[in-house]
Design a protein that fits this description.
489 residues; alpha+beta; Penicillin-binding protein 2a (Domain 2); Beta-lactamase; 2 domains; six-stranded mixed beta sheet; five-stranded antiparallel beta sheet; 21 strands; 38% helix; elongated
Length: 489
């Protein structure tokens, strides 16, 4: 072989090696990256040409489904009562793909591409049939979701309803909301315009306030402080604690007062722990927080879930996990900041889910269960692929403490807020009114509670943002309506 033939042969071998390497990079190593690239129209058509699984409520109500259509995408995603269920479902669109909610957290199952659907994929390969996605059965109760949404529809806020023994999420409402159907259109221009309008809206309708927004909890946080006090062994429900008509925050000239005369205590300036809780005495709990110390309160708050994001649904194997952002209690605050934090102001912040979990833990005898949103997953032939089983998240308090807190929370209704009582039902609750805005001109109105107090079926947390009313008046009637619906009262 002469010199030129050898050079030609070498060049051909090198080119084949480069071709083989580049093909391997494209088809194997970079396959997932290329499939997920939003510019890859083949991937887009592949996703839309397969029947995506449905998302269902606990009674079988269809919240999201895909129907065959006569256009290049083959299937159209649609959402029944879109704004009602948007925080739960999220959406699936040609511009954003799966985003938020179950659409995102269970995307791989809905598309039929999860390894859990291996045998169905194997069958589709040999029969030539479409690879159908799995259906997702959630724990959402449509009646509770609807009543919570109706009550909050003209407000900014959120409501979360839990089943205390399991912490299945029965309702998760966020207002203002949005309609996922406008993002599910096959008209790219319309979808992009709708998305731009939603993301630029100052009311932030696409935000799931139940798990992705932090609010100062106001006096509803006194439940955590009361837990720390009772768990310390130094206090009982009838223990007398310092209160008074006003309290000067440590090292400041700032005077803290009470919303009602009843929170001031007796002539000696003292009040029982139960009455301090029932009448929401700021002066009592600010001083109680100082006496307990920030570490004791922070340790208790962490047992309830503060300081860490809380998994709600899904995993990396099913999609992008849905999580609630971490609620906050300050680390080693100055004495004046501790006093404010102990009454749910200052640096204390919570998600509505977190507050519902606190109520749920008390209702469940001191045991906090992990919150879940999906009951089970079924393949297209209705075979159950996976089922969610209740699991313990933590033990924030003893059963004895839970029983004492229940009595204290019942006293909130009987002593301070009788307008929230439900005939024939014992209700346990704690209200909260957090001052917000410039000059504290507005409130975040809270309530959290459970019923029936002697055999809890539901735990509820409601927040109404930027209201001019106290928590018992702004959020209280909403909780009452939800409880009446749940208990048939």
């Amino acid at each position: 072989m002469n010199k030129y033939l050898r050079q030609l042969f070498t060049a051909v071998v090198v080119l084949f090696a480069i071709l083989g390497l580049s093909s391997t990079m494209i088809t194997a190593i970079n396959a997932n990256k290329l499939n997920n690239d939003p510019r890859n129209q083949r991937g887009l058509y592949h996703e839309f040409n397969a029947p995506r699984g449905s998302i269902l409520a606990s009674d079988g109500t269809v919240m999201a489904k895909s129907d065959p259509v006569n256009d290049p995408f083959a299937y159209q995603r649609s959402y029944s009562n879109g704004p009602l269920y948007a925080p739960v479902t999220g959406y699936f669109s040609i511009s954003q793909r799966a985003d938020r909610g179950i659409e995102d957290s269970r995307n791989k199952l809905l598309t039929g591409e999860s390894n859990q659907l291996f045998w169905q994929q194997f069958k589709s390969l040999f029969t030539g049939s479409a690879n159908k996605g799995a259906s997702i059965e959630t724990s959402i109760d449509p009646k509770l979701q609807a009543i919570a949404y109706e009550q909050l529809a003209d407000k900014s806020g959120s409501a979360v309803v839990l089943e205390p023994k399991t912490n299945r999420i029965l309702a998760m409402v966020s207002t203002p909301s949005y309609d996922p159907n406008v993002l599910a259109s096959h008209d790219t221009a319309k979808v992009n315009k709708a998305y731009s309008n939603l993301t630029s809206d100052n009311s932030n309708p696409m935000l799931n306030r139940a798990i992705s927004e932090l609010y100062p909890p106001g006096s509803s946080f006194k439940t955590v402080v009361a837990t720390a006090a009772l768990e310390s062994g130094k206090y009982q429900t009838n223990s007398e604690v310092p209160a008074g008509a006003s309290y000067t925050l440590p090292n400041t000239n700032t005077q803290l007062t009470n919303a009602t005369f009843s929170g001031n205590g007796g002539p000696d300036g003292k009040i029982s722990l139960e009455d301090a809780f029932a009448y929401s005495s700021n002066t009592a709990f600010a001083q109680l927080g100082g006496a307990l110390g920030s570490q004791a309160i922070q340790d208790t708050a962490k047992k309830f879930g503060f300081g860490s994001s809380i998994p709600i649904d899904g995993s990396n194997s099913t999609g992008d996990p849905m999580q609630a952002i971490a609620s906050k209690f300050p680390d080693n605050p100055a004495p004046d900041r501790l006093a404010l934090a102990s009454i749910g102001q200052g640096d204390t912040q919570e998600t509505p889910l977190q507050n519902a979990m606190i109520a749920s833990a008390v209702a469940n005898g001191g045991t906090l269960m992990r919150p879940t949103l999906v009951d089970r997953v079924r393949s297209s032939d209705l075979t159950v692929i996976s089922q969610t089983n209740p699991s313990v998240m933590s033990q924030p308090m003893s059963k004895d403490t839970a029983n004492k807190l229940t009595e204290m929370m019942k006293a909130v209704i009987t002593k301070e807020d009788p307008h929230l009582a439900i005939p024939g039902v014992s209700v346990a609750a704690k209200t909260g009114t957090a001052q917000i805005g410039v000059g504290n001109q507005a409130n975040d109105g809270w309530i959290m509670g459970f019923a029936p107090a002697d055999d809890p079926k539901i735990a509820v947390a409601v927040v109404v943002h930027n209201t001019d009313m106290a928590g018992g008046d702004a959020a209280g009637p909403i909780m009452k309506a939800i409880m009446r619906e749940a208990l048939g009262k």
